[in-house]
């Protein structure tokens, strides 16, 4: 077993609730809006530039964040611009069912129930203000984080119903109060002094919001340019936003990194790309893939970001090939090294297994697809261009079979997703080339050309010609009877591992399949942890 460096658990989450809905989503909320004689306002996607909106039928919602004089809370004010066509408005703010969130004041709204407000029909610009308790870590203040001189908060969900002859289009914007410094984008607001740097990478605008004003974003910018040009999944954004929080390595615990839609935050150390397991590359993948899977495919969310975060960093010349493979090798899962089954979230909740085993299995699957298609297709083809997550594992399995055009790949994948078995990790570097035109080892020859010559694409001058095998590996085209009986038939240098599946009692707290969506919200972000070396 290869030596591994010590690991520490850090919070890192993909914040996705109902598509791009922000982190402040309530769980188990029952105070629903009544529907009699009311209709919902139609949402307008902020990224949908094709929607024609008319002022007479647009219901505008503006959410403004501000810090308070006394520490420990942030105020959010919800203000509404109501078109003449609307004669009645009800607004529900589900987070009001949670502790630590209170109504600070209303103007033109009457409260109905725990989470609902009704417009008085007379006030031209009605508003509701909420006070959210926050702490100095996301674990203590689950609504956001506040430290000396700055705060970070996410936009909560709201729901609206109207009385109107014509159904209005709802638009929502999130911002920072004019009276204080800050910046908001993609459901996140940073409150505090900062610098902003804008860069263009492959026709996509990236904004770095530097709360850590002395942070060096040069290497991260280089990675973004390479990634946008060479590592795309068929997904383009007009812009992405990177919030760099002013936290040191010693104080980054519980605010390490997270992604919301097309924005993510990192600490100062997150801008460093000195190892393939860099936080920055992991979060970049989240902005591209979003929610990858639900139900028994939930593990794909972090497994894919972990695998491609490592893979893309390696192909951009980050770290070493040796440490890359050591990081991908999943032999134990912090913190308690339990046996896990990826398709059963209850077996891995509270561990790093969905990151570690998830990435390991996807690395092996990527190589398997390449072998079976003579390297015409890769795992990236399974993910590319998708607008919806895989509804369950069977949907993902079907997409893999379709891309590889090989039914026998289904049983191969079942073995490693639906049991605790672990496949051999590919050791042939040809299977880790993500962009053959790049030169990650900086030896003057592109990695694709090096593979064609049988040379190592990630280690300059490594060995003679022919060190990298050019033929496809044999005996992997189907799941054999020996595999079914547990014998190792892998063709890589490492043996498959796994034990008989057991039920784990007294496991770490977390979420089951039915609560998967809520578990990736900020409200319970402590359940999803990322380890850093």
Distance between the termini: 18 Å
Rg value: 25 Å
Give the biggest sheet: 7 strands, mixed
Q: Which stretches are poorly predicted, pLDDT < 50 over at least 5 residues?
A: 1-30, 45-55, 471-493, 499-533
The total beta strand count reads 22
- The global form is globular
Number of helices: 12
- The spatial strand order of the largest sheet comes to 17-18-19-21-20-1-22
> Overall mean pLDDT score?
80
Helix content: 10-25%
Percentage of β-strand residues: 15-25%
The structural class is alpha+beta
Would you kindly provide a written description of the structure presented here, covering whatever features stand out?
Helices cover 21% and strands 24% of the residues. It is built from twelve helices and 22 strands. The strands form four sheets. It has a seven-stranded mixed beta sheet with strand order 17-18-19-21-20-1-22. A six-stranded mixed beta sheet has the order 3-14-4-5-10-7, with no helix packed on it. It has a five-stranded antiparallel beta sheet with strand order 2-13-6-9-8, with no helix packed on it. A hairpin with a 2-residue loop joins strand 15 and strand 16 (188-192). Helix 2 crosses helix 3 (299-315). Residues 420-507 are annotated as: Disordered. This is PGF-CTERM sorting domain-containing protein.
């Amino acid at each position: 077993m290869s030596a591994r460096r010590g690991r520490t658990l850090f919070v890192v989450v993909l914040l996705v609730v109902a598509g791009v809905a922000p982190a402040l989503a309530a769980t188990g909320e029952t105070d629903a809006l009544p529907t009699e004689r009311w209709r919902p306002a139609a949402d307008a996607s902020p990224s949908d530039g094709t929607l024609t909106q008319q002022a007479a039928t647009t219901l505008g919602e503006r959410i403004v964040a501000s810090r308070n004089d006394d520490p420990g809370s942030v105020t959010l004010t919800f203000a509404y611009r109501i078109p003449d066509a609307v004669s009645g408005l009800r607004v529900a703010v589900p987070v009001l069912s949670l502790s630590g969130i209170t109504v600070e004041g209303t103007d033109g709204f009457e409260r109905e129930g725990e989470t609902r407000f009704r417009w008085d029909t007379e006030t031209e610009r009605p508003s509701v203000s909420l006070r959210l308790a926050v702490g100095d870590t996301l674990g203590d203040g689950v609504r956001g984080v506040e430290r000396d001189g700055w705060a970070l908060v996410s936009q909560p969900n709201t729901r609206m119903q109207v009385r109107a002859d014509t159904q209005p289009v709802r638009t929502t914007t999130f911002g920072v109060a004019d009276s204080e410094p800050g910046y908001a984008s993609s459901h996140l607001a940073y409150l505090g002094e900062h610098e902003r740097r804008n860069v263009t990478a492959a026709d996509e605008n990236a904004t770095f919001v530097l709360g850590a004003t002395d942070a060096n974003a040069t290497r991260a910018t280089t990675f973004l340019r390479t990634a946008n040009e060479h590592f795309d999944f068929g997904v383009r954004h007009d812009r992405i936003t990177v919030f760099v929080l002013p936290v040191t390595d010693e104080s980054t615990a519980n605010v390490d990194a997270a992604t919301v839609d097309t924005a993510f935050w990192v600490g100062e150390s997150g801008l460093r790309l000195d190892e393939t397991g860099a936080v920055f590359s992991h979060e970049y993948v989240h902005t591209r893939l979003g929610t990858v899977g639900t139900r028994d495919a939930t593990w794909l969310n972090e497994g894919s970001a972990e695998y491609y975060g490592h893979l893309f960093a390696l192909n951009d010349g980050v770290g070493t090939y040796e440490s890359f493979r050591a990081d991908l090798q999943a032999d134990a899962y912090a913190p308690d090294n339990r046996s896990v089954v990826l398709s059963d979230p209850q077996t891995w909740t509270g561990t790093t297994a969905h990151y570690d085993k998830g990435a390991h299995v996807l690395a092996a699957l990527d190589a398997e697809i390449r072998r079976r298609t003579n390297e015409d297709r890769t795992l990236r083809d399974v993910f590319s261009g998708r607008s919806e997550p895989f509804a369950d594992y069977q949907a993902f399995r079907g997409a893999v079979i379709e891309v590889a055009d090989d039914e026998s790949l289904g049983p191969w994948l079942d073995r490693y997703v639906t049991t605790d078995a672990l496949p051999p990790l590919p050791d042939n570097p040809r299977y880790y080339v993500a962009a053959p035109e790049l030169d990650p080892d900086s030896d003057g020859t592109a990695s694709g050309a090096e593979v064609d010559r049988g040379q190592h694409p990630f280690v300059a001058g490594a060995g003679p010609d022919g060190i990298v095998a050019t033929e496809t590996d044999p005996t992997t085209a189907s799941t054999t009877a020996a595999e079914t009986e547990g014998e190792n038939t892998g063709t890589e240098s490492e043996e498959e591992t796994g034990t008989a599946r057991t039920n784990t009692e007294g496991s770490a707290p977390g979420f089951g399949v039915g609560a998967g969506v809520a578990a990736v919200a900020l409200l319970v972000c402590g359940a999803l942890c990322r380890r850093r070396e």
